[in-house]
Write a structure and sequence with these properties.
310 residues, mainly beta, 4-stranded antiparallel β-sheet, 4 helices, 23 strands, globular, F-box_dom, F-box domain-containing protein, membrane, transmembrane, transmembrane helix
Length: 310
């Protein structure tokens, strides 16, 4: 069973109750060993929206989206596609693997003309021991959030435009223009506090993004010549640390449409070029390990796929 691809693993789990029990008991071990799949969303001739997950062998998992009027995807968080319906300003979250879904009304903003500026993530808050749905507007200084299972939204306004927002080790960090970094606190009083560092982030960065790997948080330049410039955020010393010497140890997965970036250590999966050849982005130095798709689905983010059932 552990040698199966994702598509066959899901088919295996649906044969009977005993096989499903075996699959579920080994789910965590299975998903952490799976490389990411590319994701695309399209609408067919019958105006039905489909989600396609494709592995590196070209096998596709086709999933009919339950609500075809939710066509814009503004993020992927803990294995959930975050779909937006602009006409009614609300979100539908769906996990394409477990097929679990839930609806989140969004009463604040008419998003018809600014869908591309929105981002959204799920965050676990240790202070309330619960999950929070966070929506942010990249260019209009606002962050909204609601506790899962409740309808009372709260928002906070920042002094700077928001380039990116990232949850890391139970905290939320926001990256702003001119390379400012802030910490956002949700409870008890929502606020965004600018962090002071002992040195400065390197200038001339275009479209920087926050990315975490293990116990470390990084800022990478999303659009530049490859290999990317990476800097680690050292919170113990409150310093920016250059990682240029180790950049070749990583493979970068860039989602071109949804502003999502991630990187992994090369040894995690062997022979990445044979797996993701059609997604590779050539580098003139011959050292590039950059793979681009409309969207990437990382299975290690699904380790908490059952949290919303509890």
């Amino acid at each position: 069973m552990m040698r199966l691809g994702v598509v066959d693993f899901l088919a295996f789990s649906r044969v009977c109750k005993s096989w499903r029990s075996l699959a579920l008991s080994n789910m965590n071990m299975f998903i952490v060993s799976r490389p990411p799949m590319s994701v695309s969303i399209s609408t067919d001739a019958n105006h039905e929206s489909k989600c396609y997950l494709e592995d590196f062998e070209g096998r596709k998992l086709k999933i009919s989206l339950p609500h075809s009027d939710y066509k814009a995807c503004v993020g992927v968080s803990y294995g959930y596609l975050i779909l937006l319906r602009a006409k009614t300003n609300d979100f539908w979250l769906m996990n394409p693997i477990t097929r679990h879904e839930f609806h989140v009304p969004f009463p604040f903003l008419n998003v018809r003309s600014c869908t591309s500026f929105l981002g959204a993530i799920l965050v676990f808050s240790p202070l309330i021991s619960g999950w929070v749905f966070v929506v942010f507007d990249r260019y209009f200084h606002k962050i909204w959030f609601v506790i899962f299972g409740k309808r009372e939204w709260t928002y906070v306004t920042t002094h700077f435009s928001i380039l990116d927002l990232h949850a890391f080790r139970g905290k939320i960090y926001t990256l702003h223009l001119d390379n400012f970094l802030s910490e956002m606190r949700l409870f008890p009083t929502p606020e965004v506090t600018l962090l002071e560092f002992n040195n400065f982030l390197k200038p001339n960065r275009r479209y920087p993004r926050l990315v975490s790997l293990g116990e470390k948080l990084y800022v990478i330049n999303r659009i530049s010549e490859f290999p990317y410039m990476i800097q680690e955020i050292n919170f113990s010393k409150m310093e920016w640390v250059s990682c240029e010497k180790t950049v070749e140890e990583y493979a970068f997965f860039l989602s071109s449409d949804y502003c999502f970036s991630a990187f992994i250590r090369i040894e995690t999966w062997v022979d990445l070029y044979s797996q993701y050849g059609k997604h590779s982005f050539p580098d003139k130095n011959g050292k590039g390990k950059l793979f681009r798709a409309k969207m990437w689905y990382f299975f290690h983010d699904c380790l908490n796929v059952n949290f919303l059932h509890q």
